[in-house]
């Protein structure tokens, strides 16, 4: 299904070239339509061809910076398009020039090595495919149910060397009973049953049935008042107001807040993107990060049973989690003086669609910024902190993920993932007990991890960057440490890609200092930012496993690569049914220098989850985050000029005796 390189302008004489203000601006609805028309005009395009992914093909950073500085032309406006023929399973990876109105490259994808993400159309076909197979119907009958009462859950298959799956598009299917239309089926898993389905040939290739297990009966309907219990009626309203409006300004996708400036972007695969993140210091706009996003996430499960051993999901590379972004609502997902941004993406026919209020931005009070009461002079000063919050929420099957980027007045940057939703459940059996939690009568929840890869294209004061690993060092008794209480730190330059694949180490407070190798502060120190990681385990799967090969990014907390615009995804471009080795292992195999180069940091973070009864029937939010903090970037505390808060006085509520003001 290779698409020839053609000039499609003749087919669409009414289109004019689109020249956005920025070569990195998000694709517009009009551009999605143009991409659709250009691609569908090619001879290889058929009625069964589907648009799996359409996104901005970003120009090289060097071209963007040269154009920004006035030393180079505007980079060509391009889109990347992944196509799948639903009749044959053939797929291609294409680059479309919007300036030339042409497909400028088309490459066939080898399905034996990895495939394009799963289509919603493929998922939607699974109930009919399963119901048409007598083996499936018989297995349901042995569990006292029928297809009409069962919700099938198609899931990505991984790669396990099954001969009939090589080169074919496969999903694996688990089932849950739904007792009535409003019933949440996650409470009623059909344990012991799994179907392997070929989505192109539309048939079950294997049916795994290890025997019927009693289906848990207790309701998991978290939206049912009888399940929720008596409302907690002692909570009083909290009102968040900004009578003079928010402190940020927005022009298109460009945002200014306090000393921060940045651009927003969004992608069907990566979700929210922050670009050109800079801090204005004494009138100088200093770059910190060129581009920041979540580049992959994997959710590996630890149950080795015959029907679940394959459970591991790459929510970006296999599912394109950005397309499941929630439309947000004032006072529910975000609170305060809100600025919403709509998101425009392309559906599987190439047509644009809009997710209203997909991105939320607002300010939050964040307690004390700095404070001191001096015992000698009596001086007492306090300043309140606040942060700018940029976020979105996406629902991938049973789980809901919020991704929050925080910018602080003192130059700190944080990224936080919020995890909630419904546990992926199983029938609880004695055989499965070592790998599952019992969360309700007869209901299990397998142990699992959520491992995110943040791609941080750094630009700390410019593109000449390096990474020093910092560790606390205990010192033994010596002539200079005669009481044994001294300690110091070690500084190790990570010089090449192979040596820069590292794990966090909480016992030594291991962190990574991203420094500019050409610029120093007034003390002669390199200007820099420190990456403070979380201290959770890396991938728990055995290093020799199929999963470890496919999710190699999750075996280290830190990777550092030399910038290459083609190296965008932590597990490679084509993750679905991949055999492994793509992404970071391939990138770092080149062992390029990362000392004084244009570098990209890839940080793995996320929780290892042993589910609790308290996580059922809906999980309270769990949190995972990392922090980037200026370290030698500024000459002093950059938040010294934050003015005192204008509190309305310390007023006492006569009913409660409480006060309000600017403390805390």
From TrEMBL:
Listed InterPro entries: AGAO-like_N2, Cu_Am_Ox_Cu-bd, Cu_Am_ox_TPQ-bd, Cu_amine_oxidase, Cu_amine_oxidase_C, Cu_amine_oxidase_C_sf, Cu_amine_oxidase_N-reg
Molecular functions per Gene Ontology: copper ion binding; primary methylamine oxidase activity; quinone binding
Entry keyword set: Copper, Disulfide bond, Metal-binding, Oxidoreductase, TPQ
Every Copper amine oxidase catalytic domain range: 238-640
Recorded catalytic activity of this chain's protein: a primary methyl amine + O2 + H2O = an aldehyde + H2O2 + NH4(+)
Domain of life of the organism encoding this protein: Bacteria
PANTHER family membership: COPPER AMINE OXIDASE, COPPER AMINE OXIDASE 1-RELATED
NCBIfam families linked: PRK11504.1
Protein's UniProt name: Amine oxidase
Species: Kocuria rosea (Deinococcus erythromyxa)
């Amino acid at each position: 299904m290779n698409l020839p390189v053609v000039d499609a302008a003749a087919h669409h004489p009414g289109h004019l070239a689109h020249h956005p203000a920025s070569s990195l601006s998000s694709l517009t609805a009009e551009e999605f339509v143009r991409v659709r028309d250009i691609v569908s005009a090619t001879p290889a395009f058929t009625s069964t061809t589907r648009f799996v992914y359409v996104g901005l093909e970003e120009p090289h950073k060097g071209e963007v910076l040269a154009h920004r500085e006035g030393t180079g032309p505007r980079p060509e406006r391009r889109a990347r398009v992944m196509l799948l023929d639903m009749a044959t399973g053939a797929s291609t990876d294409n680059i479309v020039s919007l300036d030339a109105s042409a497909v400028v490259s088309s490459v066939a994808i080898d399905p034996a090595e990895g495939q394009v993400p799963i289509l919603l159309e493929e998922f939607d076909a699974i109930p009919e495919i399963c119901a048409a197979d007598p083996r499936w119907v018989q297995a349901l009958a042995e569990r006292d149910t029928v297809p009409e009462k069962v919700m099938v859950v198609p899931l990505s298959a991984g790669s396990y060397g099954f001969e009939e799956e090589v080169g074919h598009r496969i999903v694996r299917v688990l089932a849950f009973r739904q007792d009535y239309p409003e019933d949440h089926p996650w409470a009623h898993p059909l344990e012991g049953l799994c179907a392997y389905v070929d989505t192109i040939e539309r048939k079950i290739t294997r049916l795994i049935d290890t025997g019927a297990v009693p289906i848990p009966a207790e309701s998991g309907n978290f939206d049912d008042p009888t399940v929720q219990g008596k409302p907690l009626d002692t909570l009083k309203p909290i009102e968040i107001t900004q009578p003079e409006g928010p402190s940020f300004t927005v022009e298109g996708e460009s945002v200014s807040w306090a000393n921060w400036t940045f651009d927003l972007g969004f992608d069907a695969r990566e979700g929210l993107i922050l670009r050109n993140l800079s801090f204005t210091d004494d009138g100088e706009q200093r770059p910190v990060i060129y581009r920041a996003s979540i580049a992959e996430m994997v959710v590996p499960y630890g149950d080795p049973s015959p029907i679940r051993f394959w459970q591991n999901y790459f929510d970006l590379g296999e599912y394109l989690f950005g397309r499941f972004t929630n439309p947000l609502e004032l006072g529910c997902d975000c609170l305060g003086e809100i600025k919403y941004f709509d998101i425009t993406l392309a559906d599987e026919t190439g047509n644009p669609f809009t997710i209203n209020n997909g991105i939320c931005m607002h300010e939050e009070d964040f307690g004390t910024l700095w404070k001191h009461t001096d015992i000698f002079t009596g001086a007492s000063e306090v300043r309140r902190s606040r942060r700018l919050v940029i976020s979105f929420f996406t629902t991938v099957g049973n789980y809901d993920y919020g991704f929050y980027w925080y910018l602080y007045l003192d130059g700190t940057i944080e990224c936080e993932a919020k995890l909630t939703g419904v546990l992926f459940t199983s029938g609880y059996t004695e055989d499965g007990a070592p790998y599952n939690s019992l969360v309700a009568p007869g209901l299990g929840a397998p142990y699992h991890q959520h491992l995110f890869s943040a791609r941080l294209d750094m630009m700390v004061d410019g593109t000449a960057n390096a990474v020093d690993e910092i560790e606390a060092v205990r010192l033994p008794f010596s002539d200079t440490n005669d009481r044994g209480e001294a300690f110091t730190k070690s500084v190790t330059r990570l010089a090449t890609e192979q040596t820069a694949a590292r794990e966090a180490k909480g016992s030594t407070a291991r962190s990574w200092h991203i420094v500019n190798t050409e610029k120093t502060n007034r003390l002669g120190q390199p200007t820099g930012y420190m990456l403070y990681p979380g201290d959770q385990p890396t991938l728990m799967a055995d290093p020799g496993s199929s999963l470890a090969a496919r999710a190699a990014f999750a075996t280290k907390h830190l990777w550092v690569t030399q910038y290459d615009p083609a190296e965008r995804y932590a597990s490679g471009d084509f993750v679905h049914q991949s055999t492994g080795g793509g992404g970071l292992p391939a990138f770092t195999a080149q062992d390029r220098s990362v000392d004084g180069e244009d570098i990209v940091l890839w940080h793995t973070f996320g929780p290892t989850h042993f589910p609790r009864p308290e996580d059922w029937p809906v999980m309270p939010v769990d949190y995972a985050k990392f922090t980037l903090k200026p370290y030698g970037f500024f000459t002093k505390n950059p938040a010294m000029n934050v003015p005192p808060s204008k509190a309305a006085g310390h007023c006492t509520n006569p009913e409660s005796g409480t006060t309000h003001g600017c403390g805390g």
